[in-house]
């Protein structure tokens, strides 16, 4: 719902956190009155939407776009959180959305999307941070065929962190990505990949009409060189299907049997060689199980505090990557005869536009 300028002014008079955000925006848009949408009553105060308001500023440079800014992740009114350094969750979200048609109003789906991200944070209690990414389980704009189906978070390139009466607030920009680009983040580093993308996406403007940046050979080469040089910064993935057990055997080492869903095998195979050879562990987490893959001079499997620590030498790691496939079956690892991996068929879940999982 569009707020009137009178309602907005009333809110500013009694909201020091709101004032601090407006002051930061006025430095960038000193002569523009934003289009503001909200009820002034967020979810925490009994309203239907989590965020009391979202402002949208119209931009021409460096490319035509709408610049959205949220109000409500931070404390707009009285200080209530226990952390004296942070205002609420310590951030507000921004989104820059391409506007090639010079529209009079920003698209409603973008406002709904930002509210849905707020619902995720408010319901889970897990805030976003620069370097996080998530998959939206479908097109970022519902009922569209856009290839933008994932988002990452980085500090807004024009809005520095501010200090309000209620504490510090950062501005985290939501950056739309394709699934292929999201996978590139996993293979290297979210912020380093976004830094490469910034050369091709001015101010990280989200464009629903574009294809994958990895179709550009220069982009693909820069990302491949980075991951080959530094490995992956992603130390953990999640899966719906994961279990393990160890069974005693007469006169032989116990058999360690791992079961994983086929859906996650591709990520496991892609990321293990970008973690273990660089001396970093890699963890797979399921609803009721956790497996930590670790680089080691000798192969072993040990249960520690309910998690399986699977230590692999270079030969075993390479064999696992070479033999394992994303199809149902049993797979052995060369040089590790007491290990057996089972891949289970994964049922395809309907895409419903929900947030999947935030990864840092």
Automatic annotation (TrEMBL):
- Domain Suppressor of fused-like, residue spans: 48-210
Superkingdom of the organism of origin? Bacteria
**Organism ancestry:** Bacteria, Pseudomonadati, Pseudomonadota, Gammaproteobacteria, Lysobacterales
User: Which protein, by its recorded name, is this?
Assistant: Suppressor of fused domain protein
**SUPFAM superfamilies in alphabetical order:** Suppressor of Fused, N-terminal domain
Q: Which InterPro entries match?
A: SUFU-like_domain, SUFU_N, Suppressor_of_fused, Suppressor_of_fused_bac
Question: Which one Pfam family would you cite for this protein?
Answer: SUFU
């Amino acid at each position: 719902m569009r707020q009137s300028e009178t309602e907005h002014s009333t809110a500013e008079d009694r909201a020091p956190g709101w004032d601090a955000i407006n002051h930061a925006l006025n430095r960038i848009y000193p002569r523009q009155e934003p289009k503001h949408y909200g009820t002034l009553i967020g979810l925490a105060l009994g309203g239907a939407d989590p965020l009391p308001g979202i402002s949208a500023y119209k931009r021409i440079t460096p490319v035509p776009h709408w610049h959205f800014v949220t109000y409500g992740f931070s404390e707009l009114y009285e200080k209530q959180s226990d952390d004296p350094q942070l205002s609420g969750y310590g951030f507000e979200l921004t989104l820059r959305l391409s506007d090639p048609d010079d529209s009079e109003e920003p698209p409603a789906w973008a406002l709904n999307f930002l509210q849905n991200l707020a619902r995720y944070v408010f319901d889970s209690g897990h805030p976003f941070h620069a370097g996080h990414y998530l998959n939206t389980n479908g097109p970022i704009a519902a009922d569209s065929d856009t290839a933008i189906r994932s988002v990452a978070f980085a500090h807004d390139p024009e809005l520095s962190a501010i200090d309000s009466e209620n504490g510090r607030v950062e501005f985290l920009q939501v950056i739309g990505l394709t699934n292929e680009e999201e996978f590139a983040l996993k293979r290297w580093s979210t912020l380093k990949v976004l830094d490469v993308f910034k050369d091709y996406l001015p101010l990280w403007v989200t464009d629903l009409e574009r294809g994958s940046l990895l179709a550009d050979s220069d982009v693909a080469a820069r990302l491949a060189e980075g991951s080959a040089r530094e490995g992956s910064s992603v130390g953990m993935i999640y899966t719906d299907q994961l279990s393990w057990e160890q069974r005693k055997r007469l006169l032989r080492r116990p058999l360690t049997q791992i079961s994983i869903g086929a859906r996650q095998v591709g990520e496991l195979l892609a990321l293990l060689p970008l973690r273990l050879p660089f001396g970093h562990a890699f963890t797979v987490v399921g609803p009721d199980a956790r497996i930590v893959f670790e680089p080691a001079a000798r192969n072993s499997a040990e249960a520690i505090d309910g998690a399986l620590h699977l230590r692999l030498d270079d030969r075993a790691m390479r064999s696992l990557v070479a033999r394992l496939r994303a199809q149902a079956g049993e797979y052995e690892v060369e040089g590790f005869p007491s290990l057996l991996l089972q891949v289970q068929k994964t049922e395809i879940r309907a895409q419903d536009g929900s947030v999947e999982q935030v990864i840092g």
